[in-house]
Amino acid sequence: MQLSIRELAKRYKTGDGVSGINIEIEKGELVTLLGPSGCGKTTVLRSIGGFLEPDSGDILIEGQSVIQLPPEKRPTSMVFQSYNLWSHMSVYDNLAFGLKIRKMPKAEIRAAVDEALKLVRLSGFEKKYPAELSGGQQQRVALARSLLLKPAVLLLDEPFSALDAKLRHEMREELREIQMKTGLTMVFVTHDQEEALSLSDRIIVMNHGRIEQIAKPQEIYDAPASLYVASFIGKMNFLEGVAEEGSIRIGKLRLPNDKDLRGRITAAVRPEDVQLGEQIVGDNILPGKIKQVMILGHYAEVTVELAEFGIIRAFQSKEVVQHMQSGQEVGVCISKAAGFPVEQAKAI
Ligand SMILES: Nc1ncnc2c1ncn2[C@@H]1O[C@H](COP(=O)(O)OP(=O)(O)OP(=O)(O)O)[C@@H](O)[C@H]1O
């Protein structure tokens, strides 16, 4: 394993912190720590980088414990949201600095800086100063500076959150390219679920200082491990239901139940698993009334008020909703639901 985190715990004086953190990351993986503000992502990342001393637990990189080492002795490098470039130094000097300290010969430094700038698409920017660069360019320089140090694990703390949406998208793609070219292991912190879903090999979803789920993006989306993950990732409907052996009941609808759950549950239903039709009576149909139809490119988001269950949202193709309008009665079918114990709703 490239990076192993074992039973990491850190409690601040305020009582906040993280506990029971166990993570195994393979070489070349890009893993994101995802969760809302205050859930403990930065605490985990800083512990890996050595900027923060955990109360207990161990961190191993390439099989060696690094827990006793200061940040500069660890085989890690951190990219911060705020870039942290030296404003009085040119791009070249910002990049060369760490290598000069390591006493690398001048010619080698030049070659390494050239290569790093090429990787972040900033060849020719050597003589510029940080103030002459855009936010995205400054972040690319910061990234190049970290890459130059050839860390075993690159740590990225919300590196793109200061950038506008378009640039953020571009930077994600560039980071993915860099990962493919270098095969570098990366741990990326974000509170943006879209960023995590589009970037990661695996996502670690955190909540209140604990890990809720570690899985590939598709699995996190299709099979959330808890109601919290279900509510945090993607759009989701929540309906009251009852779980029995082999089935989940939502009113008169019966859906397969693949979990060992019984009794009252909260059923989570993705909008793409809701179908609308003109037929409003039937065994597998819940009656409802359309509240709103919103066309978004090739599909439409339709909001329906169900007689017994309140609001449900459905993603439909544009063709299906062509003749639908607000106030119209519709039949609602659900093809798939995941049940969660009702108590989990309190933990969100
Ligand atoms: N130095 C500190 N002293 C006391 N409490 C702290 C300290 N640093 C963090 N905390 C608290 O610990 C919890 C976890 O913080 P952390 O910064 O790890 O969360 P985060 O998920 O990275 O949040 P954000 O996305 O806002 O950076 C929060 O409740 C925070 O207020």
Named at the architecture level, the CATH assignment of the largest domain is 3-Layer(aba) Sandwich
Number of strands: 20
> Could you give me the name of the CATH homologous superfamily of the largest domain?
P-loop containing nucleotide triphosphate hydrolases
Helical percentage: 25-40%
CATH class of the largest domain: Alpha Beta
The secondary-structure element order is: EEEHEEEHHHEHEHEEHHEEEEEEEEHEE
Protein name: ABC transporter ATP-binding protein
Keywords: ATP-binding, Nucleotide-binding, Transport
Organism: Saccharibacillus endophyticus
Domain ABC transporter: 3-233
Could you characterize what this model shows?
Keywords: ATP-binding, Nucleotide-binding, Transport. GO terms for molecular function: ATP binding. This is ABC transporter ATP-binding protein. With 348 residues, the chain is α+β, with helices and mostly antiparallel strands. The protein has two domains: 225 residues, 3-Layer(aba) Sandwich (Rossmann fold); 111 residues, Beta Barrel (OB fold (Dihydrolipoamide Acetyltransferase, E2P)), CATH 2.40.50.140. The chain contains nine helices and 20 strands. Strands 6-7-8-3-9-10 form a six-stranded mixed β-sheet, sandwiched between helices. A five-stranded antiparallel β-sheet has the order 13-12-11-14-20. Helix 2 packs across helix 3, helix 2 runs parallel beside helix 4 and helix 3 packs across helix 4. The longest helix has 18 residues. It is elongated. The protein starts with a strand and ends in a 7-residue tail after the last strand. The mean pLDDT is 93. Bound molecules: adenosine-5'-triphosphate. Adenosine-5'-triphosphate binds next to helix 1. The site of adenosine-5'-triphosphate has 13 residues, from helix 1.
